[in-house]
């Protein structure tokens, strides 16, 4: 690590040392945010994705541009189109001096639900070619709390390593516990900062709308919490259903395993009796093991349970946030009334 | 003398530009090659009822000298095709260039674009910041005919409007700074909101006081809008309001209790490791 000595040149920072430093923040350009927002909002309610381009410097990942992926229809041969689209796009962007390093991808979600297996598999496939990548998750509906619903998500290293070695679906609880990875150590959210070139900042100031209150302000002050709560509660219900299904799968597996072991014990007992009888007759005893008879039952992947629990946790946090805000507003209103 | 015909332009077209386009242009200008004075590119958008809504754009490499102008046509067509795959509704509607005003070679470029679409619109964005302002102007071209022979093409300025709604919802203050922290705590943002609201109210009450004392001339429009705003506050009797607030507070508390319950359950399951255990 270039900590002790003087070298502060670009090469030493972006050299091999890049992957040793943990990712601390993601820097987005203003126009990238506008592009992502535009693309996700126009295609709502279809969920869309796109590619992020930029630079990976030290502890910050700078995203300087992005482009959208075309919608894949069932009729085209999807794979060919997608890769040729990417190649063409990259070539064109290079001609206009846009950094064409892929640093990740963005996707739109519904209600902020992003903890899915596809995220992990996509992340792993990206990691084969680039050292660090992130996924930006945008919620076109927004939680209406006035904040920009944008998150930068990445997989934690320990989990990514484990997943790469074993394959995501074959991870079990024991293997994960051995690595010290718990449910919380799968995804990591990284804080986002915005960056604008001075020209863009000047443009924004010139364009500044005359209204003194931005739209987000009026949204924040609205007293109606009910619709947001309703949608979140239905999401909570859906998550609880998922948890229930997960538990059922786990119990099924346990029951099947127990039954199989019982069968094996019975068979072994019968074999032993037969052998005792044979020995009494002076014959060769049959082998006590029959490897072909009982196939090992596949243990359900632990990752599903983890993801569902994480999602549930997130929904609860969201609910808490909204309810806290609601209470604050009610308290304010009561204060106003007393004046 | 052969008549000199100035054709009447098509029904007054207005151009609406989305802020994404402007920021893209700024970015393209910042990234231009050395020695290039300006950047040109294609505009994509939707035409409806004589209003051209410009929604997207991309830069096109070009070569410009005093004698000739060369535009990379393959690049333009390739990118147009790629963008069409993403959003088939957006078509080529014109082109943009940075720099103040219209120059001679623009006629040639406009000619090229008129082969791509009908009546292309040319938008200029003054990134060189002459006149201390970022002027955004739009032009459409008109042919000047002299006895059926085309003499010249004239650029006629049309109205250009920048839609700022998107920018407003994003937060203009976020875009104005060069580096800014983005995540704002809900409690803090509510506080800033309320303080802004109280500021507005103070300004309004100051104004009304001044008018009543005769220090300031009353403006009918402002007075009317103030009266409207005040009348919109619903008059609810005290008991009713209390009941309403209590009801909603109770609902909110119930849901908070529920979500905390679920969270505690999850935390316990984590600690005890029962997540992996089956239900027996």
From TrEMBL, chain A:
Protein's cellular compartments: Cytoplasm
Main location: cytoplasm
Compositionally biased spans, kind Basic and acidic residues: 271-282
Keyword field contains Acetylation: no
Residue span(s) of domain MPN: 26-159
GO-annotated molecular function: metallopeptidase activity; translation initiation factor activity
Cellular-component GO terms for this entry: eukaryotic 43S preinitiation complex; eukaryotic 48S preinitiation complex; eukaryotic translation initiation factor 3 complex
Keyword field: Cytoplasm, Initiation factor, Protein biosynthesis
Transmembrane segments: none
Stretches for region Disordered: 270-297
BP terms from Gene Ontology: formation of cytoplasmic translation initiation complex
Subunit annotation: Component of the eukaryotic translation initiation factor 3 (eIF-3) complex.
Function: Component of the eukaryotic translation initiation factor 3 (eIF-3) complex, which is involved in protein synthesis of a specialized repertoire of mRNAs and, together with other initiation factors, stimulates binding of mRNA and methionyl-tRNAi to the 40S ribosome. The eIF-3 complex specifically targets and initiates translation of a subset of mRNAs involved in cell proliferation.
Family, similarity comment: Belongs to the eIF-3 subunit H family.
Protein name according to UniProt: Eukaryotic translation initiation factor 3 subunit H
TrEMBL record, chain B:
SMART domains: JAB_MPN (SM00232)
GO MF annotation: an example: metallopeptidase activity
Example GO BP: formation of cytoplasmic translation initiation complex
Entry's localization field: Cytoplasm
Keyword Protein biosynthesis (UniProt): yes
Main subcellular location of this protein, as a coarse class: cytoplasm
Sorted UniProt keywords: Cytoplasm, Initiation factor, Protein biosynthesis
Keyword hit for Protein biosynthesis: yes
One GO cellular component term noted in the UniProt record for this chain: eukaryotic 43S preinitiation complex
Annotated MPN domain residues: 15-145
InterPro entries in the record: eIF3f, EIF3F/CSN6-like_C, JAMM/MPN+_dom, MPN
PANTHER family: EUKARYOTIC TRANSLATION INITIATION FACTOR 3 SUBUNIT F (PTHR10540:SF6), EUKARYOTIC TRANSLATION INITIATION FACTOR 3 SUBUNIT F-RELATED (PTHR10540)
Protein family: Belongs to the eIF-3 subunit F family.
Task of the protein: Component of the eukaryotic translation initiation factor 3 (eIF-3) complex, which is involved in protein synthesis of a specialized repertoire of mRNAs and, together with other initiation factors, stimulates binding of mRNA and methionyl-tRNAi to the 40S ribosome. The eIF-3 complex specifically targets and initiates translation of a subset of mRNAs involved in cell proliferation.
Assembly with partners or alone: Component of the eukaryotic translation initiation factor 3 (eIF-3) complex.
The protein's name in its UniProt record: Eukaryotic translation initiation factor 3 subunit F
């Amino acid at each position: 690590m270039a900590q002790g000595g003087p070298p502060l040149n670009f090469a030493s920072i972006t050299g091999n040392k890049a992957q040793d430093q943990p990712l601390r923040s993601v820097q987005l350009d203003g126009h990238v945010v506008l592009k992502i927002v535009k693309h996700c909002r126009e295609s709502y309610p279809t969920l869309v994705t796109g590619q992020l381009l930029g630079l990976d410097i030290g502890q910050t990942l700078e995203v300087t541009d992005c482009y959208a992926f075309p919608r894949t229809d069932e009729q085209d041969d999807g794979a060919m189109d997608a890769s040729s689209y990417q190649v063409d796009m990259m070539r064109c962007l290079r001609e206009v001096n846009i950094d064409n390093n892929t640093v990740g991808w963005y996707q739109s979600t519904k209600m902020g639900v992003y903890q899915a297996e596809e995220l992990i598999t996509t992340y792993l496939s990206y990691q084969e070619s680039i050292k660090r990548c992130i996924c930006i998750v945008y919620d076109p509906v927004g939680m209406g709390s006035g904040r920009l619903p944008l998150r930068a998500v990445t997989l934690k290293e320990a989990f990514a390593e484990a997943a790469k070695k074993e394959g995501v679906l074959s991870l079990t609880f024991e293997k994960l516990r051995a690595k010290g990875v718990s449910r919380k150590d799968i995804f990591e959210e990284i804080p986002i900062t915005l960056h604008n070139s001075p020209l863009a900042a000047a443009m924004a100031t010139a364009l500044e709308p005359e209204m003194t209150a931005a739209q987000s302000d009026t949204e924040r002050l609205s007293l109606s919490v009910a619709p947001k709560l309703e949608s979140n509660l239905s999401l909570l219900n859906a998550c609880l259903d998922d948890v229930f299904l997960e538990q059922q799968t786990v119990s099924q597996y346990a029951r099947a395993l127990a039954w199989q072991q019982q069968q094996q014990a019975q068979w072994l007992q019968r074999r032993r009796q037969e052998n005792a009888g044979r020995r009494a007759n002076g014959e060769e005893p049959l082998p006590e093991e029959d490897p072909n008879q009982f196939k090992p039952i596949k243990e359900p992947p632990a990752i599903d349970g983890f993801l569902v629990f994480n999602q549930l946790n997130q929904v609860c946090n969201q609910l808490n946030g909204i309810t806290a805000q609601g209470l604050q507003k009610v308290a304010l209103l009561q204060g106003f009334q007393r004046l | 003398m052969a008549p000199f015909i100035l054709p009447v332009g098509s029904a007054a077209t207005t151009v609406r530009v989305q802020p994404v386009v402007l920021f893209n242009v700024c970015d393209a200008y910042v990234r231009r090659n050395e020695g290039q004075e300006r950047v040109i590119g294609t505009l994509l958008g939707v035409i409806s009822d004589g209003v051209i809504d410009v929604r997207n754009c991309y830069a096109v490499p070009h070569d410009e000298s005093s004698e000739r102008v060369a535009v990379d046509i393959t690049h333009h067509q390739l990118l147009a095709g790629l963008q069409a795959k993403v959003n088939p509704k957006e078509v080529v509607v014109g082109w943009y260039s940075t720099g103040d005003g219209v120059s001679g070679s623009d006629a040639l470029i406009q000619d090229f674009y008129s082969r791509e679409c009908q009546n292309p619109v040319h938008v200029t964005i003054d990134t060189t910041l002459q006149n201390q302002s970022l002027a955004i102007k739009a032009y459409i071209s008109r042919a000047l005919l002299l006895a059926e022979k085309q003499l010249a093409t004239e650029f006629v300025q049309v109205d250009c409007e920048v839609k700022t709604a998107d920018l407003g919802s994003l937060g203009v203050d976020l875009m104005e700074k060069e580096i800014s922290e983005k995540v704002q705590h809900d409690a803090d943002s509510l506080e800033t909101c309320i303080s802004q609201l109280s500021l507005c109210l103070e300004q309004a009450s100051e104004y009304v006081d001044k008018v009543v004392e005769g220090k300031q001339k009353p403006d009918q429009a402002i007075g009317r809008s103030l009266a409207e705003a005040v009348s919109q506050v619903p008059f609810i009797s005290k008991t009713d309001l209390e009941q309403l607030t209590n009801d909603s507070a109770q609902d909110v508390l119930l849901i908070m209790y529920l979500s905390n319950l679920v969270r505690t359950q999850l935390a316990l399951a984590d600690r005890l490791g029962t997540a992996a255990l089956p239900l027996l």
